[in-house]
Amino acid sequence: MTEKVAVAMSGGVDSAGAALLLREMGFDVSGVTLLLHHFRDGAGDEVASAQDAARALGIPHEVLDLCGLFRQAVMDPFVAAYTAGRTPNPCIDCNRAVKFGALMEYVLSRGCRYLATGHYARIGRDGERYLLLRGRDRRKDQSYVLWQLTQEQLSHLLLPVGEYEKPAIRAMAAAHGFCSAGRRDSQDICFIPDGDYMRFLEEYGGVTPVPGDFVDQEGRVLGRHRGLERYTAGQRRGLGVSAERPLYVLSKDLSRGTVVLGPDEALYTRTLSASHVNLISLPELTGPVRVTAKTRYSQQEAAATAEPLPGGGMWVVFDEAQRAVTPGQSVVLYDGERVAGGGIIEASGT
Questions:
Q1: What is the mean pLDDT of each run of 10 residues along the chain (350 residues)?
Q2: Domain end marker among 262, 277, 298
Q3: 126 - beta bridge partners?
Q4: Cα(123)–Cα(142) distance, rounded to whole angstroms?
Q5: How far apart are CA 56 and CA 181, in angstroms?
Q6: Which domain holds residue 299?
Q7: Rounded Cα distance, 210 and 333, in Å
Q8: Are residues 241 and 297 part of one domain?
């Protein structure tokens, strides 16, 4: 019997390419597009693009409304994180609760053996343990945003485009007449397509930014800021503070309502603590383990040692100091091509 797989079709070229590859592999393929929010311009275009690709492939397609869950699991925590002085990564929350949570449960309940997505990453095996591997196209590798995948989820997941480079996927899509073949990759948060996250916080989250003081590392007032939510660690632009040398956001003090500014060299730290730890290639973390790690999607990973903390947390010590380690972002650990695991950054140290 041909195995059934449902492809999460976002309307982009990568998920359309995933559906094409799986059909050519002989799977019984269907497509499902998630409706996640009603207020954003362009959502209808994405559904139409996914439907176009499904028609071209001759596969069934449906739209699944998960707007309520998306608000609860992604948008509301996004607002809460910013008001708590953190800088969240909503894609991590979406992958955990929506794509590989509710959507996977839905397609498995409908008789599918697998869910597939267009992420540039790969799945492997080491004995009985499933592995998450980097994508072949290291420039497009998306393993960083998939560190929360569990062994159960990995056993029901296919990532076919992870074996290819992006130009090859675009060429396949163009050859089959997909309207998404030439579409530019989005760089914005899906529910904030214009990048104006402050407007979203104000209009959706009801956030009213409260002005306060910019201060230096000794507490001396340097000027006035326009609300803590407008600033994140490492930021230089838009501060409006005159100084003899460039100043950057070092941290935010919620209790005092201040934003601490300082020189670039003050942004570097060697240590961090993380919570919500999930391990993939490692069955458990019982002592210090040598890894490479990175704290942002776009950066290169660096040599580090990870060790457990009481209560399921994790302590990571880098060999060399890293810039602008930010609470709310993810730290992801690698062992060569394998994703060893990851966690949510809680604090950084010297």
A1: 92 95 97 82 76 95 96 97 93 95 98 97 96 94 97 98 95 88 76 89 95 96 95 93 92 95 96 97 94 94 96 96 95 97 91
A2: 262
A3: 129
A4: 12
A5: 13
A6: 267-349
A7: 37
A8: no
Q: What is the model's pLDDT at position 185?
A: 74
Kindly state whether residue 195 falls inside one of the protein's structural domains. Answer: no
Distance CA 143, CA 15 (A): 16
For residue 321, the surrounding DSSP H or E stretch is strand 313-323
Catalogue the E-assigned strands of 50-177.
Answer: 61-65, 114-116, 121-126, 129-134, 157-158
CA distance 266 to 60: 55
Instruction: Tell me the three state secondary structure of residue 326.
Output: coil
Calpha distance 325→77 (Å, rounded): 20
- Judged by DSSP in three states, 144 sits in helix
Q: How many domains does the chain have?
A: 3
Q: What integer pLDDT is reported at residue 178 of this predicted model? A: 86
Q: State the catalytic residues.
A: 94, 190
For 311, counting Cβ atoms within 10 Å of its Cβ (0-12 exposed, 13-18 middle, 19+ buried), the class is exposed
Q: Among 169, 191, 190, which Cα is nearest to 181's?
A: 169
Angle at CA 224, nearest 5°, toward 221 and 226?
Answer: 145
